[in-house]
Amino acid sequence: MDWGLRIRWSRGYTFVELLVVATIVLILASAIMPLAKVTSTRNREAELRRSLREIRTAIDKYKDAADLGQIGSLDIKVGSENYPPDLQTLVDGVTAANDATGRKLKYLRHIPIDPMTRGTEWGMRSYQDKPDSTRWGGQNVFDVYTTFDGKALDGTKYKDW
Predict the structure, then answer these.
(1) If you count DSSP H runs as helices and E runs as strands, how many of each does the chain have, helices first?
(2) Which of 141, 83, 74 minimizes the C-alpha distance to 102?
(3) Residues whose CB is less than 8 angstroms from the CB of residue 157 and which lie 6 or more positions away in sequence, other chains included
(4) Half-sphere exposure at residue 14, Cβ-oriented, CA atoms within 13 angstroms
(5) How far, CA to CA in Å, does 18 sit from each of 8, 27, 31, 93, 104?
(6) Total-model pTM
(7) Residue bearing the bigger pLDDT, 67 or 78
(8) Do 143 and 133 meet the contact criterion of CB atoms below 8 Å apart?
(9) Half-sphere exposure of residue 41, counting CA atoms within 13 Å on the CB side?
(10) What is the DSSP letter of 111?
């Protein structure tokens, strides 16, 4: 038995073995990074859909309550078509009609954060605005959209959602 040969082989990894392992790790990491980016974008898109649905549902509930006469007449502006004047009204609430206690009807706990811009500033359209309008007329809030100027994974613009 050659003990010198045995000792030389048991000392550790060679430089070539370490280089091969590092190359394999780099290849795996380069394959995972695009997948992680797509997953992150997909999660933000899902959150944007949830936020838009939450705001639009609140606008619809406000409109339904105004149409049914459940909102005090002082809170509804003439020419607003029974839509809220702004998003903050949905948070602050409006006085219930025929309620002497001053109870407020609230439709949102808070204005949701736009996951694309990471802010609470939303693009708004009033009932009187054109469907493709990029400026809010200010009369009421008929619809909301994100102000982020990017494209989704499916190729559509986020503003068109």
Answers:
(1) 3, 4
(2) 74
(3) 149, 150, 151
(4) 5
(5) 17, 14, 20, 65, 69
(6) 0.78
(7) 67
(8) no
(9) 13
(10) P
Phi, psi of 105 (to 5 degrees): -95, 120
The model's pLDDT over 125-151, given as tens digits with 9 standing for 90+, comes to 998 888 777 788 888 999 999 999 999
* Locus of tokens 């190729």: 155
Q: How many residues in total does the chain contain?
A: 161
Are 124 and 143 in contact by the 8 Å Cβ rule? The answer is yes
Tokens of 56: 């639009």
95 pLDDT band, cuts 50/70/90, is confident
Name the token pair of 2: 């050659």
Provide the phi-psi class of 136: left if phi over 0, else alpha when psi is between -120 and 50, else beta: beta
For 141, the 3-state DSSP assignment is coil
CB of 126 closer than 8 Å to CB of 83: yes
Distance CA 25, CA 36 (A): 16
Residue ranges in the chain assigned as alpha helix (H): 3-9, 15-67, 87-92
**How many Å apart are CA 126 and CA 128, to the nearest integer?**
5
d(CA 111, CA 113): 7
Question: Cα–chain-centroid distance for residue 46?
Answer: 7
